[in-house]
Give the backbone structure.
Amino acid sequence: MQPTLNGIRVLDFTRVLAGPFCTMLLGDMGAEVIKVESPKGDDTRHWGPPWLGDESAYYLAVNRNKRSLTLNLKSPEGQQIAKTLARQSQIVIENFKPGQMAQFGLDYETLKRDHPALVYASITGYGQSGPYADRPGYDQVIQAMSGLMSITGSADGEPYKVGVAVTDVLTGMFALSGILAALRHAEITGHGQVLDFALFDSQLAGLVNVASNALISGAIPRRYGSAHPNIVPYQPFRAMDGELVVSVGNDSQFAALCDLIAQPELKADPRYQTNPARVAHRESLIPVLQAAFETQTVATWVNALNERGIPSGPINNVIEALDDPHVQARQIVRETELHNGHTLRYVASPLQDAGEIRYPPPALGQHTESILTEWLGYGPEQIADYRARGVI
């Protein structure tokens, strides 16, 4: 079966994480993605250690199923090459500062004159409008400004950023959804769209119930560590030999938990019979549950809880998570060979129609000559001339 986006061409002017994550997903779904890089390359190529040969692990995480073309967009010839490639693409995606692509003659208004069905997506820190539009936007700054850091960390500690660049990842996923919808619209109507994705917008939307709590109550959300502001018990507990999380989502699950720990009187106590009551009385309930969980091992509790329909799991480190037997059974961690001969282990796409890797993460400019030959019909002499003059 052919991947969903087989035959779709994507001209990718993005770097770092949000944009490359989005275009990797498009590539996983079968699109032909051309990663346009400056001769210096994507910044993340230099974000190491760790390294696999001459490539950083950070770059390798989000650049599979792409081909790399080096192009000097400051040169007139480089701009003309990019325009010609854009006319042959269904999707253009970029993450330059607002106005930068217009300076190259590669903005949506210019490109759509010759390509009205073009889907054009921009990813920036704060969007194309508003008082912060010209500011550079990195994930950590957005986590701080959006309020995410203010709700992350221990209740009596300082704010923390999430351990992965979750704002970038979230923005990349929003961009993927918007691009696919616009592509569908273009196929039906023949008219493309320009899409404006901002890290700040995406992270505010990603606050979901916490933002709703604030808007409805008017109260500033506080940190609960790994506990939940609206559900109790929904947090980690210490067992005899480690830690586990227990996520009780309804009253019947709580009743089953009370029976499991041999304290059925808890489910009859008016303070704990309903979730709103448990939220109001969490300070008295949690120590009782903690004392119970300390009597058995993590594995014992996790197995017993899940057998009774109570969501639970161990708190793994990342290596433990990647080596989990369920991960192995679903073949989530796979292998491919890089251009430098090294074997790359990677986390496969969770998209159900994503096939095997067609292109491992490319070396800088690895496919420049083949792209210019296949897409534009350039011959060896013209390519050599452009290379000598710093166009590619």
The domain at 9-206+329-388 is CATH 3.40.50.10540 (Rossmann fold). The radius of gyration is 25 Å. The chain has two domains: 9-206+329-388, 234-314.
